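Table S4 entry, YbaK/aminoacyl-tRNA synthetase-associated domain-containing protein.
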Amino acid sequence: MTQSSSTTEQLEPQKILLELTCKVEALESSGKFVPSSKSRRPEAATDPFALRVLVAATAAGFTKTLFTRCPDEYYSWPLEKRRGLLRGASLHHLTKSIVLQNTRHDGDHNPDDVLRSKFLCCVVPYSTKINSDALRDAVRKLFGERGLQVPSARHFNYRLAEDCIGVTGYEPNAVTPLGLKTRMPVVLAKQIAQLDPPTFWLGAGEVSLKWRVELDEFVSAFNPVVLDFAISEES
């Protein structure tokens, strides 16, 4: 590799970061994104890992996006303080990605079909929790909607994936739908699909790295199935 090509490769992520930062600023000034406080917007992460994820996100079609680093004590904070740091419009705009495994899956894993997949990457607001029975019922309902025979409930038992790192490539609290080690369908909680403004935060591959996305770009990139399976933490 020549010195010139090496330099180009080093500069490309910074160029992308600059362009996307400008787009984020334009988005905020347009009024489409409404921050909940007057504090300065989160600072864009520029470390090597964050830049690699940024390039991957750009390749996936994201153009209005932002990556930022959180302090080590972030997960010891109450949700409201986390929301304040990220300037989320509400607690519901802070989300988490959780990979579930159907422990009773008895066929081949089909990463492109929520009905045939052994694993599901479920994206839900931090203000909610997954109801595995509701998820099972929602998936079974899809069979009927597609004109297929509905399997017995005994064929479904959704639980946390036994080996998070082995299945996803990420440790807990760092899981993201982007670049999963095992391909699988993305399932989006209906609460996120109804967010106003339609902008939310999720994990980005490392525990301290957070990723802000626009709902339309997320849907375009991951083609998620929207289901009603998350309930309030207070329920």
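The chain has a mean pLDDT of 86.
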